[in-house]
Amino acid sequence: MPLKRKPNTTHTPNEERRGVMRLEGLEAIRDFIHEHAPQARRRLWILSPDLSPYIYDDPELVDAVSALARRSRHADVRILIQDSRSLPSGGHRLVDLALRISSRIHLRRQPPDEARLDEAMLLIDSGVYLHQIRAVTPVAMADAWSPPRVQTLEGRFRNLWTHAIPDPELRRLKI
């Protein structure tokens, strides 16, 4: 599915397909993320233990994230991973972007003494979410307009983010 930005697209109930959807399979999850990420206006938060290359290591998605991060100083792009060892050894476009513009895209990892991240989620602005209770299972719940659910997941993400730390291994890669 192309990642072309739709003009004047906002996340409102009248303009988006609403309702909780059960997405089964990596392709369905990827399609949902690739459809909605370019529409982000202020916030894009990603929680993914391994930053799944099939989903996130995509040039068009990286361009959409880059555009959001550069569009406004108020843009809030956060990526939370398990640790850099969980990333592909050959590199990752989204991680490379985060290292290049680290003042605009914040990348953290789970502390070593914390429980392993099992879930994955994507939060876009105040209404769009995708949530996998178990990141290793390609099944997710998603909705293009659900502010109450986004608010709940936001609390979970903020809690994890507060305890997360910068990954020293990633800083070494940047040098």
What would your notes on this structure say?
With 175 residues, the protein is of the alpha/beta class. It contains six helices and seven strands. It has one domain (38-174): Endonuclease Chain A (Endonuclease, Chain A), CATH 3.30.870. It has helices at 26-36, 53-56, 59-71, 93-100, 147-163, 168-174; strands at 21-24, 43-47, 76-81, 105-109, 120-124, 128-132, 139-143. The chain is globular.
How large is the radius of gyration?
A: 15 Å
How many H/I helical runs?
Answer: 6
The sequence of SSEs as H and E is EHEHHEHEEEEHH
| CATH T-level topology | Endonuclease, Chain A
Low-confidence stretches: 4-16
What's this entry about, in short?
By secondary structure, the protein is an alpha/beta fold. Helix content is 34%, strand content 20%.
